[in-house]
Amino acid sequence: CGAFDSSVKHGKDTKNRQRYLCKSCNKTYINGLSSLKHLKTSDYIFKKFLGLVIDDTTNEVIARNLSVNTKTVNYWKFIVFKALEDYQESIKLNGTIIIDETFIPIRDKKYKVIKYDNKGIRGLSYNQLCIITMIDLHGISVAKVSSRAMALPEHYITLFTDNIGSIVRFIHDGNRKGFQFMKSFNVEYLDGRRDKSGRYSIDFVDHYHSNLKRHIFKHNGFKIKNTQHYLNFFVYRQNYLASHDVKGMIRKNNVKNKMIDDLFKIINHSYKKITYLDYMKDKGIENILLSIY
Fold first, then answer.
1. Any idea of the CA torsion for 136, 94, 100, 181, to the nearest 10 degrees?
2. Per-residue model confidence as pLDDT tens digits over 250-277
3. Phi, psi angles (nearest 5°) of residue 106
4. How far apart are alpha carbons 31 and 188 in whole angstroms?
5. Exposure pattern of 101-111 as b/e (b: 16+ CB <10 Å)?
6. What pLDDT, on the 0 to 100 scale, is given for residue 123?
7. What's the rounded Cα separation, in Å, for the pair 267 and 261?
8. 159 vs 200, more confident
């Protein structure tokens, strides 16, 4: 989880090595083990890699800068993704929360739905992946893949209930699928698209969606099954910048340097060796992509 000041001794393993318990995330680890120890690279090179990823650099440019191939770049990205796999579960949104959905097309033939007569696609909407996003006015956000086509009421409840902190109101785009979720918090919920005062505009989240899609589709070789991995990283980066009062390019660069160190600590503190085979076998969100019927 990245916390280094909340650990206590927690017995020893079978090789008589001291095990520790992190009271922040309730996970145990052995000091000195790292998810990066098996990589044939230095901490300096890996941190340089993290900086390039944070800057949304393409795989080809990263590979050229670090003198590695693009397969290595994708593998290293997967190590980052696994370290952030549970990141969004601990996020709390507060105050006014804007809730909306966006869609990305499912172009991979493996997951595309074809009509029974093979003459065309069965419903354009069903061949899109729904991403539900929520963002508060402090810029803290969550973004999760819910389903193929339009999300159902239970998706909002299952995926986002634990992300709601001290809330004042919801601003939505008129989609009634999220009403059951919003009503459960006993606060007002307003249609931002019908608001003529300008006080409750959802332009904020529209801009967020544009950045999100730019982040996803900028990467050559992007695989639809890895969508949630990319979202986790995008949300981590956005939230880190939002929580550090970034104003001006010099300040932004300083904050990004701190982000590199923070992300490096999170990866090292995951204490799980992620092999290339793990990367190749990872199924991502195939459970959603294959839920056709």
1. -170
2. 888 999 999 999 999 999 877 567 888 9
3. -95, 100
4. 48
5. bbbbebeeeeb
6. 52
7. 10
8. 159
Using CA atoms, how far residue 143 sits from 74, 94, 170, in Å, is 22, 15, 16
Give the C-alpha separation, 210 to 106, whole Å. 18
Do 148 and 129 touch, CB atoms closer than 8 A? yes
Model pLDDT, residue 12: 78
List alpha helices for 8-165, DSSP H.
43-54, 59-66, 70-83, 153-160
- CA–CA dist 199, 214 (Å, integer): 27
pTM of the model: 0.84
Residue 42 has a pLDDT of: 84
Sign of the C-alpha dihedral, residues 89, 212, 225, 65?
Answer: negative
Give the bridge partners for 144, in sequence order: 132
pLDDT tens for 82-109 read 999 999 999 999 999 999 999 999 988 8
Residues across the chain: 293
* Sign of the torsion angle spanned by Cα atoms 142, 148, 151, 153: negative
The first and second tokens of residue 24, run together, are 């922040």
Question: How would DSSP label each residue in 166-225?
Answer: EEEEEEE-S-GGGHHHHHTTTSEEEETTT-SSSTT--HHHHHHHHHHHHHHHTSTT--GG
Concatenated DSSP letters for 28-73? EEETT--TTTTSSS-HHHHHHHHHHHHTT--HHHHHHHHT--HHHH
